[in-house]
Amino acid sequence: MVPVEELDNYKEEVIKIYQSLHRHPELGYEEKRTAGLIADKLREYGLDVQVGLAITGVLGILDSGRQGKTIMLRADMDALEIEEKTGCSFASEIPGKMHACGHDGHVSMLLLAAKYLAANKEKFFGKIKFVFQPAEENSSAEMRTEAARRGYYGVGGAGFMIQEGVLENVDACYAIHVNPLQKIGTVFINEGKAMASSDKFTATIIGTGGHGAAPHKGVDPVAAAAALLDAYHLLPAREISASDTCVVSIGTIHTPFSSWNILPERIVISGNIRTFDDGVREYVVGRMGELLAGIATANRCKYEFERMKGYNATINNKKMAVRAADVARKVLGPGNVILSDVPFMSSEDLGNYFLKVPGALIWLGVADDKEESPGLHSPYFRLNPEALIYGTAIHINNVLNFLN
Predict the structure, then answer these.
(1) What pLDDT, on the 0 to 100 scale, is given for residue 371?
(2) What is the set of domains in the chain, with CATH numbers?
(3) pLDDT of 369 higher than 90
């Protein structure tokens, strides 16, 4: 077991890298500066490095020289289209872009774990793959087109990295995600269900429009839309078992080219579906299409339904989760680790890796004790850089525990 205190010499570097990345956020598949910094550091530490995977992804391989298993550690690299409002001394220097989800912290921790492990190869058997993945959050239409040109048609960079072969011969996978609502020096791990799948839907109801003074002369989609909203909100509660977590949320209701005194020609409703079970996922999508068809037809309207399949659920392997919790207790102390069966309904593409190999997502507390920390994806999001050395220690000890 490597105690946090043994990593004191790494603390300054992990914070320095983090602040540099935070100043220069880059969006999905555009992380050129970030990838360059990562590749340079990995080469400096003595790893074999592959660049340009999934456009901007980086893979570092560390071989102990002794036969054993292979573990993969993953960090995402991309930022968000958010204007930073923290006012911190190392705030984003790129207008309209910000590391508001802590991916700069993820990269920093994984890099310093690579540095320590490369300097201490005698402490483990087998190999380590350090995966630095692009486009976990989102990417521009232009870059999605570029991904398709290279033969990838999925969403999120994880599937693209898998297509590039990063999971070949991998026996297990771990990843750390920062949590600004969780106290520094603590860890939260889900035993199984960790994060939900996420699909977007668009339901369009088409009438004929007309003057608001004479609704009988047109076909008004408003009544159909009102009935559909009720039906969609009732669907998870009345057709899905209470033991199967499912959320249907309406995000937008839009009447293009309409006004207060006009019957809209069409109403476009969009939202998201989140669950943990693919059977439930497909059932809900199917029923949403059926409900739209029935309600629209009853109201003399036409209709269109589109489902954009998003991320798969992230399901931790229970043995890997328990193992990670045991490691974290030794590093942070028993009272600072929670192993829970309560999942998060937010989503991330890490689950694609876990469909192929057993793994676990670890939530690392990065909250500043002095004041309340805003949540992820906030323009005021911040993490306490002092927390990063704890995540570095968790990475290192998970590797030693698994490979040995």
Answers:
(1) 65
(2) 4-191+314-403 (3.40.630.10), 198-311 (3.30.70.360)
(3) no
